[in-house]
Amino acid sequence: MSIFPRISLKPEVTDYLKSVFLNKEVLAAVDHQEANCRFQKLLTCLSHPPSYTCVRASTHLAPLEEIRHKLGEELKKQQMCTSSAEEVSVQILPHPRIPDVLLLPVDGPRPVKQLSSEVMVGAQCGSAVLRGAHVFVPGILASPKYMKAGDVVSVLSDLEGRCTRGATSFQGKKVFVGNGVAQIDRSSIFCTDEPAKGIGVRMVEPLYQSPSFDGVLPNLAFLQNLPSVVVGHVLGPRPGERILDMCAAPGGKTCHIAALMRDQGEVVALDRIRNKIDRIHQNAQMLHLRSIKVYCFNSTQAVSSDPAQEAEGPPFPPESFDRVLLDAPCSGLGQRPSMSCTWSLKEICSYQPLQRKLFHAAVQLLRKGGVLVYSTCTVTLAENEEQVAWALQTFPCLTLQPQEPHIGAEGMLGAGLSPEQLRLLQRFSPELSWDQAGTAAPLPCRADRDTIGFFIAKFLKN
């Protein structure tokens, strides 16, 4: 059900995306009306959250059924603290094809009445609320002049980033995401030298009801989008291998790879941003994974020109790794819910050259007979199918491989790839089933279609 406006984009970005989804190859396969309908559905569904929460279970630490039971108990406790004495039930289902995934339905949109007392939050904070989070103090932009802890308030998301921090009201483009109870006085948010931390508004009537995972089984239940879990399985790591994760922060996929290898072998995680490296360390520690080695390093420079180099860290000699994951920096236009993207077309289109530099390094670092997986969380052709076409032309040693599991759609027309090649690609396209994504469909069926926008390609180096 559509209750939010379509994602807010700059007109030039909307026009660009429309030209992608109504390209010549697409229009030769489906009529203009159908192609345009899909595009409009994409813009709508991007502003809405998926109809379920996906949890990756740490099956290297405990059996799935045990984790499912413990999670159910924890979430029941959480619900009993926040709801009335009515019967508390938590539905948690295992994914039928992915052995370490648990699915929890999201209840929404719910009939929540908006109040006159409004707290404004940033778009990113508003999106987090739609996926079950409370409002943390740094996300608050404006609040009523005399707001005190205990006040019941409506939470609204600033769509265009125009609300002045510290304001008492805001008349710009905003959207209602639910009601909550203020945990802190206004003066403690905006009138202190030390920035306040912690929960600023505890959500009691969110528009979309899903569990808050704050502090819930942190080492056994890891929140992760379904396609991001699929990537680890498609890479297919095996115990004893040496694997490279080129753009690893915050470390969700890195930790999944190590878990799938039963923590036997070596997973090298690189990221060029220093403060993101700490997150990878924290996640590895929390999940009791010792096979992960983390380095702050720019992966475009990760190939050593000295083949005799024996240093443990980067840069590495060519053909140092059995498998390489290139989960590339991208325009992120597949993320959901996302009600607003303020980027210019130049920013949206700036990632392709960087992705190609990373590709060059990845192919050199992969041994012959090794596997390279390329993935993004965006919907453009330039960063997905066009990169595959370019890679196959640039590196004759690469061939596309079947993916397991393959639960997304095939690749999108428009990059000149053959039908056989498109079938080997995996594009998660929520717009294709947006009408059928209602809560009537069984949860596992919904889960495979109602995802973020995502793309996966798997190559073998011959």
UniProtKB/TrEMBL annotation:
<keyword id="KW-0489">Methyltransferase</keyword>
<comment type="similarity">
    <text>Belongs to the class I-like SAM-binding methyltransferase superfamily. RsmB/NOP family.</text>
</comment>
<feature type="domain" description="SAM-dependent MTase RsmB/NOP-type">
    <location>
        <begin position="146"/>
        <end position="462"/>
    </location>
</feature>
<dbReference type="Pfam" id="PF01189">
    <property type="entry name" value="Methyltr_RsmB-F"/>
</dbReference>
<dbReference type="GO" id="GO:0003723">
    <property type="term" value="F:RNA binding"/>
</dbReference>
<feature type="active site" description="Nucleophile">
    <location>
        <position position="377"/>
    </location>
</feature>
<dbReference type="InterPro" id="IPR023267">
    <property type="entry name" value="RCMT"/>
</dbReference>
<dbReference type="InterPro" id="IPR001678">
    <property type="entry name" value="MeTrfase_RsmB-F_NOP2_dom"/>
</dbReference>
<dbReference type="GO" id="GO:0008173">
    <property type="term" value="F:RNA methyltransferase activity"/>
</dbReference>
<dbReference type="InterPro" id="IPR036974">
    <property type="entry name" value="PUA_sf"/>
</dbReference>
<protein>
    <recommendedName>
        <fullName>SAM-dependent MTase RsmB/NOP-type domain-containing protein</fullName>
    </recommendedName>
</protein>
<feature type="binding site">
    <location>
        <begin position="247"/>
        <end position="253"/>
    </location>
    <ligand>
        <name>S-adenosyl-L-methionine</name>
    </ligand>
</feature>
<keyword id="KW-0694">RNA-binding</keyword>
<dbReference type="InterPro" id="IPR015947">
    <property type="entry name" value="PUA-like_sf"/>
</dbReference>
<dbReference type="InterPro" id="IPR049560">
    <property type="entry name" value="MeTrfase_RsmB-F_NOP2_cat"/>
</dbReference>
<dbReference type="GO" id="GO:0001510">
    <property type="term" value="P:RNA methylation"/>
</dbReference>
<dbReference type="InterPro" id="IPR029063">
    <property type="entry name" value="SAM-dependent_MTases_sf"/>
</dbReference>
<keyword id="KW-0949">S-adenosyl-L-methionine</keyword>
<feature type="binding site">
    <location>
        <position position="271"/>
    </location>
    <ligand>
        <name>S-adenosyl-L-methionine</name>
    </ligand>
</feature>
<feature type="binding site">
    <location>
        <position position="327"/>
    </location>
    <ligand>
        <name>S-adenosyl-L-methionine</name>
    </ligand>
</feature>
<dbReference type="InterPro" id="IPR018314">
    <property type="entry name" value="RsmB/NOL1/NOP2-like_CS"/>
</dbReference>
<keyword id="KW-0808">Transferase</keyword>
